[in-house]
Amino acid sequence: MSAKSLLETTYNTRDLGGHRTADGRITLFDRIYRSDRQENPSSNDIDTLISKSINTIIDLRTDWEIEQKPSGFAGLEGFDYHNYSVLEGSGIPDAVEAVPGSYIDIACEKNMKAVFETIAGSEGGVMYNCAAGKDRTGVVTAILLMLCGVPDDEIIADYMVTKECNRERFELIHQRWPELNMDIVIPRESFMADFLKLFKERFGSAEGYFKGIGVSKENVEKIKEKLLSY
Fold first, then answer.
1. How far apart (Å, rounded) are the C-alpha atoms in residues 187 and 72?
2. In the predicted model, is pLDDT for residue 3 greater than 80?
3. I need a labelling partner for 127 at 20 to 30 A (CA). Which of 34, 59, 158, 193 fits?
4. Is residue 230's pLDDT more than 70?
């Protein structure tokens, strides 16, 4: 898994394609991208997304975050921009031990149903983002990959690529807020591993999760069809 962003103006834009599933299939490329925020996409970035038919943008940030750093795709011709505010994950948990539980809280936010329904209903490809592409984006990614049957170790490995992609961002955060406990901020394997354990204890499976938040079976199948060939 490459630690290089697919866009030249972001740190952490990556493809959900290329993951092997438990039944031996490979998730499809250029269908769904995960990303950090996109404030000022370059003409090259815009051309890249258009050429891949990635035209639905889902921004998971809060109103306050967007006021501070607006998305460059909001109102941009050729793109269908949606903002579904997810409050959990916009701040930093109180302790390292609280991170996996905060990921469960992200999964249970009321706007998550709209996030997945928008992915299901999009005509082309989708790119979703939060601020750093780490927590809220990481949770959405984990659920999508679980739905496709990607093994836990592969989901954890994908999550950890964010540590490399955001290395410069993490250094800047530490310089700006030296009192901040970076052990809470920087991804570690246990964060995602413990989240996956808690998720399965609570929902049983990705399908159980979608049923619990009210996403129809039809839309669940549409999501799978975006990432899997049959």
1. 26
2. no
3. 193
4. no
Q: Among 229, 191, 190, which residue's Cα sits nearest to residue 20?
A: 229
CA nearest to 41, candidates 79, 15, 4 = 79
Cα–Cα distances (Å) from 225 to 49, 104, 144, 148, in that order, read: 20, 25, 11, 9
pTM for the model stands at 0.96
Q: Calculate the average pLDDT of the chain.
A: 96
User: 129 with 36: CB under 8 angstroms?
Assistant: yes
Tokens of 132: 């750093």
Q: What is the pLDDT of residue 1?
A: 61
Distances (CA, A) of 203 to 7, 76, 101, 198: 34, 38, 14, 9
Element (H, E) at 126: strand 125-129
Phi/psi of residue 191, nearest 5 degrees: -60, -50
Amino acid identity of 114? A
What span, in angstroms and rounded, lies between the C-alpha atoms of 122 and 54? 10
Closest listed residue to residue 85, CA positions, set 116, 64, 105:
64
Predicted local confidence at residue 216, as pLDDT? 98
At 114, the pLDDT band (50, 70, 90 cuts) reads: very high
Three-class SS of residue 7?
coil
Percent of the chain with pLDDT over 70: 99
Angle at 57 between CA 77 and CA 171, to 5 degrees: 115
Residues shown for the chain = 230
Domains of the chain, start order: 14-224 (3.90.190.10)
